[in-house]
Amino acid sequence: MPLKSSTAFAFLLTFFLLIAKSLALQTSCNKDPYKQLNLILNPNGTITRPNKPPESLPALNSTLRVLSKDLSINQSKGTWARVYLPREALDRNSKLPLLVFFHGGGFIFLSAASTIFHDFCFNMANDVVAVVASIEYRLAPEHRLPAAYEDAVEALHWIKTDQEADENDWLRNYVDFSSVFLVGSSAGGNIAYNAGLRVASGGDELAPKIKGLILVQPFFGGAHRTGSERRLANEPHLALCSNDAMWKVSLPDGVDRDHEFCNPTVGNGPARVEMIERLGWWVLVTGCGGDPLRDRQVQLVRLMQRKGVRVVGHFTPGGYHGIQDTDPLKAKELYRVIKTFIHALSSQR
């Protein structure tokens, strides 16, 4: 049908330009995303990480508010746990919840020893008043997913089955194993989610009973862009190109971002959410308006609500992805949300 006016033509032209811009966001990047991440992608598929972020050692100093120590899980894989114990636990008659924590880093960098996560777990143990076990897992692309999930499941086995070992006295003496939560920030939230479902789907008797999931700005994706991803495509803390680059070297070869490891809302995702409902787990999902992944996190919360999962979504305005790792005040707010969530469940016993 011929256009009847220049106004109509201008409208259609604008419409198609907007579509083209949206498609360009899905397919092109102006800069090398690995360079922006300070990483070098090698021809053999590995990554060189030139500048190692600062790391912190555990401390058994009795003058500290929180004690910490490292315990080996699997020496052949290089996996271990850093366990944090609030000093006040030494003088309490009651045992504490256990938060099994998985750090962020897009599956490809950082460590449980990284100072940002050491400080985060130290303060979380103190403020929430809980034992924290922060898990060191293998990184992609040298070990693509599901390697991190496998390491997480093995860590849960270790927590339950190695309690009698002398070095595991903190877990044995101070943990209430009826109050175990899987906690993760960013990629760690993805690991907590997927590892928890792996344990649950097989009726795994070697893992501790899980009471709930605490997903802090969980790192999920998908083949089609959400509104927040388009709106915040160049957000410096998690640019769209960097996001895509991390998924490219983390997912199994030959799959896209609608794989179940990445997108929990498509394919078999709804059925997996139904399993969470049957298990009776509680779920806390936190996020903020300045995070490009916010819409995906909200989508997951809404899917859980439709499936009858007991889920709490806590979303704040502004901010950015990973804000709790760099802003102490925001971290304090998060600890209060986590503590309230855990204590509300404890009062329901």
Automatic annotation (TrEMBL):
The UniProt record lists the keyword Signal: yes
Domain Alpha/beta hydrolase fold-3: 99-323
UniProt KW Flavoprotein keyword: no
Record Gene3D superfamilies: alpha/beta hydrolase (3.40.50.1820)
First and last residue of the signal peptide: 1-24
Keywords: Hydrolase, Signal
GO molecular function: hydrolase activity
InterPro entries in the record: AB_hydrolase_3, AB_hydrolase_fold, Carboxylest/Gibb_receptor, Lipase_GDXG_HIS_AS
Family the entry assigns: Belongs to the 'GDXG' lipolytic enzyme family.
PANTHER family (UniProt xref): ARYLACETAMIDE DEACETYLASE, RECEPTOR GID1, PUTATIVE-RELATED
Protein name according to UniProt: Alpha/beta hydrolase fold-3 domain-containing protein
